[in-house]
Sequence to fold (491 residues):
Amino acid sequence: MAATQTTAAPPTASEARPKGSRVTIRDPRTGEILWSVPEAEPPAITHAVEVARSAAGQWAVVAPAERGSCLRAAARALQAAASELAGLNSSETGRPVEEALAGIAAGASTLEQYAELGPVHRGHSLRGNQLASDYTVAEPRGVAVLLTPWNDPVAVACGLIGAALVTGNTVVHKPSERCPRLGEALGEVLAPAFPPGVLQTVSGGARVGELLTTAGVDVIAHVGSSASGARIASAAVSTGAHSIRENGGNDPLLVDGDVDPAWAAGQAAIGAFSNSGQICTSVERIYVHEAIAAEFCAALEAEAALRNSNGTVAPLVDTRLRESVHAQVAQAVELGAHAVEGGAVPEGQGAFYPATVLLGCTDTMQVMTEETFGPVAPVQVVPSFDAGLRQACSGRYGLAATVLTGNIAHVQHAIAALPVGTVKVNEVFGGAPGGSAQPRGESGQGFGYGPELLDEFTRVKVVHVAAPPPFALQLPGEQLADMERSDLDQP
Fold:
């Protein structure tokens, strides 16, 4: 059904005052204040980096297998604390408890994965002289600052923490200011598995993040918005730190004319509405072939209506995000799009926003060009697969893209053309364990997750070892005999 628009409620978002010392968190379901958490002050941030620096030398020489054992202990502790952490996740971000538990299980699995990968992370042998040895050695970079998001806070943090620690770096972790209690609790669970100073947690907003990124550390890893990522990249250039960034995306879904429209609509709904659209690789814009557009759009509208009617769309993290999402939807409607489902700020408390389907979208609309990060599915009908592919290749982001088609030639053309780090064919989410990705454009830089993330947290030293030339060593007795023979040779 068509949606009517209502006036957004006054801001009740989590607040990180630039000159304040506390972060206030509100319940995304009710808008009520949950708690206020102190921000780390500059002396505490400096101290945390100094402690990490002092612990780095000893941690770097610990055998990788022993570091892996510490990660396994951390994974066991995480599993034991799953219920408590899931409750905090749900309270602070609105994520359903069962989904929060799944994220925690993924985090524990990732720690265990890096416990296995760390000891077998190796350099390369090089071809040179037969009587010499040439090889590379991977060494830890030093102190790593990890800045992690709120939308999948435990799984993402564990991926970066696991890779950084198993390769011998020490870590200062700043969780998102939108889930500070969860971040602090996660640190309290994981840190005892490691020697003192190896893993520390500091809380706060953008001010704390800025102080950390300019503190002279060796690695800065960030998962979050492209705007924040750009500032972090600039800071890394100034300090010489290595930066790893997975930032915003505007991921396209390209639907070919030869697929079942109901199935394709189901995939689109999963991609656009899961976690209320608050996933880095959510479907953000849809290009559907005109041959199946009518059936696809009707099925997608029904998918959204079902989610709205059964109450399975969780709230957004706060009303600040909801206002941003609705502003994009309102702009699209003003420019001619039709909200056939959702599209209005609901009455009542909290930061809820309905699953929304927008038809008649064009590239003049922000929902098609910017990251929305909400449960919005904007649809543009295209005359051909090639036309849709050209549209999908547009934009300044380069995180991921999905293609639904039964045509192998179209698959190969899309894989070759799409300027993104990840291409998914016929499944919006999924992938084998240990998969990695390298974002492009304003979506970031460096590998995230998988074995390649170990390379990001290490630097390579090339070693050349050659044998010395032959050298006859004479003993003192032999030298005396030589002298006597020399005397006999005198005339």
In short: The mean pLDDT is 93. The longest strand covers residues 132-140. The first helix runs from residue 42 to 60.
